[in-house]
Amino acid sequence: MAENPEGWQPRILAIICNWCSYAGADLAGGARIQYPPDVRAIRVMCTGRVDALFIMKAFTDGADSVLVSGCHFGDCHYLEGNYKAAKRMFLVKSLLKNIGLDDRRLRMTFVSASEGAKWAKVIEDVVNVTHELGPSPFNREYGELKNLV
Amino acid sequence: MAEAVSPTTSEKPKAPRIGVYVCHCGTNIAGSIDINAVKEYAKTLPNVAVVDDYQYMCSTPGQGKIETAIKEQGLTGIVVAACSPRLHEPTFRTATKEGGLNPFRFEMANIREQNSWVHMHDQAGATEKAKDAVRIAVAKATLLEDLYPKTVPVEHAAMVVGAGVAGMQAALDLANSGIKTYLIEKAPTIGGRMSQLDKTFPTLDCSQCILTPKMVDVGRSENIVLMVNAEVEEVQGYIGNFDVTIRRKATGVLSPKEAEARGIVGGGCTGCGDCAPVCPVTKPNIFEMGMAPRKAIYIYHPQVVPLLYTIDWDACVKCGLCVEACGTKQAIDLEMKDELVQVKVGTVILATGYEVFPIENKEEWGYKRYENVISSLEFERLICASGPTGGHLVRPSDGATPKRIAFVLCAGSRDSTGVGKAYCSRFCCMYSLKHAHQIMEKIPGAVPYIFYMDIRSFGKAYEEFYYRIQDEGAKFIRGRVSNIQEDPDTKNLRVYAEDTLLGRPMEIEVDMVVLAAAVQPTELTNKTRKLFGVSCSQDGWLLEAHPKLNPCGTTTAGVFVAGACQSPKDIPDSVASAEGAASAASIPIHRGEVELEPYYAMCVEDKCAGCGMCVNLCPYSALALVEKDGRTVMQVTEAKCKGCGTCGGFCPGGAIWMNHFATPQIVAQIDAFLLGGEQ
Amino acid sequence: MNADRKYAFYLGCIAPNRYPGSEAASIRTSKKLGIDLVPLEGASCCPAPGAFGSIDLNVWYAMAARNIVLAEQKGLDIALVCNGCYKSIYEVNHKLKHDKALREGVNEVLKEIDMEFKGTIDVWHLGELLYDPEIVGVEKIRESVKVPLKGVKIAVHYGCHLLKPKKERHLGSTENPMWVEELVEALGAETVQYRNKMQCCGAGGGVRGYDLAHALDITNEKLTNMVEAGAEAVVDLCPFCQLQFDRGQIEIEEKFGIKYDMPVFHYAELLGLAQGMNPSELALDLHAINTEPFLKKVL
Amino acid sequence: MVTKNYPDPKLNEKLRDRYYRRDQSNPDFTKETEKLAGSMAHMCYQCGTCTGGCPSAPRSTYRIREFMRRGVLGLEEEALTDPDLWLCTTCYSCTDRCPRDLAPTDVIMAMRNLAFRRDIVPVNFLKTVQAIYASGHGVPNNDTNRAAREKLGLTRDPPTTHMYPEYIKGIQKILDHYKLKENADRIVKEREG
């Protein structure tokens, strides 16, 4: 694992669905399950709302990782939003590869409203993977391409 | 990117002035976040006009701060950094509205459930995260616009799925409050599990005696449309406007009304039972847990409601003998086909109940391997006067009356091996005490051995009932049964456990073993719940909206849960939760209309290329292509759109504006987080 | 018949050094069924899980790993005939494959004898291979029988480490398995069910060495149940259980004054008899309990 | 420990203080046992299923549930000095049936490991170590068996460390790495002089 630059704190964006993953995250709070504070969450009604451009904008803004989390298949409050989102993630993952970003920086998971513990585990995994990958090339302070963006 | 303004906004937006309010929530937030640091930081954010904090923002004085600030400072948006929006968004929207500002110009920053509570030992990290959360919320609040909730009419009808004691109670309450209620039951009769019980604890009422009056009321109530042998096939729509398709399975037997509709005067099944004796095919009656026979044309038991015979098509050989026996009533139609019925209802209550866990999966107790090991529900039928043995408890192996009976509690419950169920099934302790009483009462000299870990006698008069049964002579052994061995000749059973209070292993030879098996949702529950968009908790039971604040509701507006389908419940709790669900379900109906959050999509027509990609993305078919002054553009039927945003997240031209979650608002949040707010 | 399946035959201690008949029978009967058991040079005690697991688990892992590496060096899966060895060899092989830290710890020790555990082979009990239809299967065994063992009732003793703990094994039920009964019935013999069939023989965990009377009392309970069910012989899959039942009956007579005369066979020995091997080729004379009366009934 | 030191030693023993006090509990014992056993022994809810199916319990004072209880309470002394610790035949019935998905058998094995570190071990275990150190086999070959093997057409010695003694060096290295032989010899000498 390459040594990460001093002072770098991973900046991870999570876009999570209101009915399942946001509720699961709240449950982890209620249960006081501790996990690292490196993730900032934005709430949408359904992962179907997540436009591929939101993720590309996040990465070009210097996000080190992006997590999209919604309901398990079959549980979506709007029936199919999570299926559509999952399909889009494959598209975005290939885009990331093309612009030289390790596609492990983008992750989609499925966490239900009753899976508080799983949410904490997902956050830990994402933070660990981000530490492993180090700062994103577009990271404003530490990325190699910071002057390009 | 689309302009930062929705297509319908006419006047130029005023210069943004945002009020930021940071809540201490006692020590819940202040305990691990530096409130002042967040406040000072908020003051440095663009467009922020007012920053304040308070011990409990959700309290009246807290809300008062928002109202006065809006009036005095002319604020255009409010941000409250406190708990989860799922908890107090409605509270602060009302406060915003009281202040004279449109309630949707409000955004919450979740710095409790998703911050202070989960980063208790990292104040620096938590405070940093809180600052970011406020900055993100302010960025969105700056771009929020006036929105007006859609009011939708509510159909003056309700549906209850499942007609056990909970479903029946809910349907009766709804019907008695003047609401037309469709009661859907998959079995040929209503009554569910309760009709299979002999006595009920702690009062030892006969179950059928206290249930039959309710069953008759359901049968007679004009406001209840009872459909047995029926399953939910498909569900469209949303609160107030559920279009439900019911599959009424062909039973081969016409009710008097159905016969009349076919012009058969005075015909239809009267439950006389002439058909059954002539029927040549016999099958096990699952109501009697397979311990009694019934013909291919059958009723479960004499008190069925509706009193109609049913044909088991897998068994029926279509010999027609029953048709002749039926004679002039002409109630039997062997070519009857399933029927799909369309029904429109305002709210739905799921009361799909429970079934017994397949306890043979726990091999160590030998269920289905040893003849004299039976399940608790089988015991109920054997001890029941209307049961297969007329209430005489007999050993399946030789029909003898058992004298020494072992009751194995926690059979499959409180089991985290992945084979059984991790949860406590709640009412097995109490019915095992009842079973012990019943055998001591009915069989002179009978000795019940109750193998338990804890006797959970939690309800009203439950502990006193436990006291009474112990006093009557039941033997209690504090030890979970390790395994059971059968004596091949006598078919007696040796039960091995440790009396942990005595500290000695025990081998007790008994004539019969009753397994107080765990319970689980019925087989059909998973399919039905998905049709209504209701998710289940990790233990497989239906997930309530909130275990304490909204136990009868679900996250799907207009769909409620009652009875054991939400989690194991005894009869008192099932009936109470049914009454709760019925009252909750009747509110929208009585109000006649319901407000829906105005998160619907809108088409930015001058950007729309009319490609139609979004149309088939919508699961509610709320989008359509229309001709508008020479161009094909997309059009949204607002009533159908539920605001999921799947179309908004895809439109290649950025021509779809999602109210309250518009693309500029979300991008502003992303930029606020990653670029410190500058665009 | 596909080409013979080759396995490194791990012998353990009691099979080769007390019941060589089971070793010889295993090799000869498997050959007829398309399994080629080749010697595993330099193998040692597995080491006995009860003895070594109780003293120092690290040594248990290292010693078992050493035996596994011998087979890895030959590039052959291991086949063995003893439940005790199965726990040591199969379980350590399984654990080292899935636990990186443990593997590195063991390899640290094995480096001293220039060995390294790579996790390239699998470990099988011969009974498991004989029952698996893709490898042999009950039908093929039945076809290979020349002398059906008619007219005797045999009680099957499964032993513990082959099937238990269920969480770390893959051979199905541990409460009421019937697959070894099928293997025995394929030889033409009749099997009997007896009370508490899945109980331990009493020898494991070093108890035979620590408190012989205690171990024998457990064995005695099983023998009583078997006699009550009308069994005329015991079949096992583990030479250590065999020792406990066979020599155990002599010790039970000395200590408790109860005489059984219940002959005890490893399944391989019975299979050998059924395939026509002569009793002298199975060294049945080494058995503590005379097997002659049993042989008169079946041969 | 509260000692009464009455002049009469018999009374001292008869009236010995039997309160459980925190100072008898060694939390490290609990942690170490769980680590070695690889099972969350603290999750035991004392239901007795293990003892109920234990083959040794009905014929001795050995109670696996009580050892689990001692593990949870950290009662190291009571657990490791109890001779019953060595009556478990490791048949794993308890592990198979434990509703909390624990492995009481592995907890016993872990406790035995800890006992051995304090020289508490039955002598037969040590004899096995010595036999293996010498020949690589816990049950080595003997002449009657060699003769029988020859009659069967097998080699007089099995193709194990008996026929290839050069492998015994490797075994000895492993045992010496953990000083097992050294400890075994020392304890046997102390016991049998």
Summary keywords:
heterotetramer, B: 679 residues, alpha/beta, five-stranded parallel beta sheet, 34 strands, globular, D: 193 residues, mainly alpha, 11 helices
How many strand segments of chain A?
4
State the low-pLDDT regions of chain A, or none.
none
Q: Spatial order of the strands in the main sheet of chain A?
A: 2-1-3-4
Count every helix of chain D, treating DSSP H or I runs of 4 or more residues as helices.
Answer: 11
Shape of chain D: globular
Overview of the molecule:
The complex is a heterotetramer of chains A (149), B (679), C (299) and D (193). Chain A is of the alpha/beta class. Helix content of chain A is 37%, strand content 15%. A four-stranded parallel beta sheet of chain A has the order 2-1-3-4, with helices on both faces. Chain A is globular. Chain A starts with 11 loop residues before the first strand and ends in a 16-residue tail after the last helix. Chain B has 679 residues and is α/β, with parallel strands linked by helices. The termini of chain B are close together. In chain B, strands 10-7-6-18-29 form a five-stranded parallel beta sheet. A five-stranded parallel beta sheet of chain B has the order 20-27-21-22-23. A four-stranded parallel beta sheet of chain B has the order 2-1-3-4, with helices on both faces. The longest helix of chain B is centred in the first third of the chain and has 21 residues, at 123-143. The model of chain B has no long low-confidence stretch (mean pLDDT 94). Chain C is of the alpha/beta class and 299 residues long. Chain C is 48% helix and 11% strand. Chain C is built from 14 helices and eight strands. In chain C, the strands form two sheets. Chain C has a four-stranded parallel beta sheet. Chain C is globular, with a radius of gyration of 19 Å. By secondary structure, chain D is mostly helical. In chain D, helix 4 packs across helix 7 and helix 8 (123-135) crosses helix 10. Chains in contact: A-B, B-C, B-D, C-D. At the C-D interface, helix 1, helix 2, helix 3, helix 4 and helix 10 of C face helix 6, helix 7, helix 8, helix 9 and helix 10 of D.
Write a brief structural summary.
Chain A has 149 residues and is α/β, with parallel strands linked by helices. In chain A, 37% of the residues lie in helices and 15% in strands. Chain C contains 14 helices and eight strands.
Map the helices and strands.
The complex is a heterotetramer of chains A (149), B (679), C (299) and D (193).
Chain A: E1 12-17, H1 21-30, E2 39-44, H2 52-60, E3 65-70, H3 81-98, E4 106-110, H4 116-133
Parallel strand pairs in A: 1-2, 1-3, 3-4
Helix pairs in contact in A: 1-4
Chain C: E1 5-10, H1 14-18, H2 20-32, E2 35-39, H3 49-55, H4 57-74, E3 78-80, H5 83-98, H6 100-110, E4 123-125, H7 126-131, H8 138-143, E5 153-157, H9 179-185, E6 190-192, H10 207-210, H11 212-228, E7 233-236, H12 239-256, E8 264-266, H13 267-274, H14 292-298
Parallel strand pairs in C: 1-2, 1-3, 3-4, 5-6, 5-7, 7-8
Helix pairs in contact in C: 2-13, 3-4, 4-5, 4-6, 5-6, 11-12
Chain D: H1 9-14, H2 27-37, H3 49-52, H4 64-73, H5 76-80, H6 93-97, H7 104-117, H8 123-135, H9 143-151, H10 168-177, H11 180-192
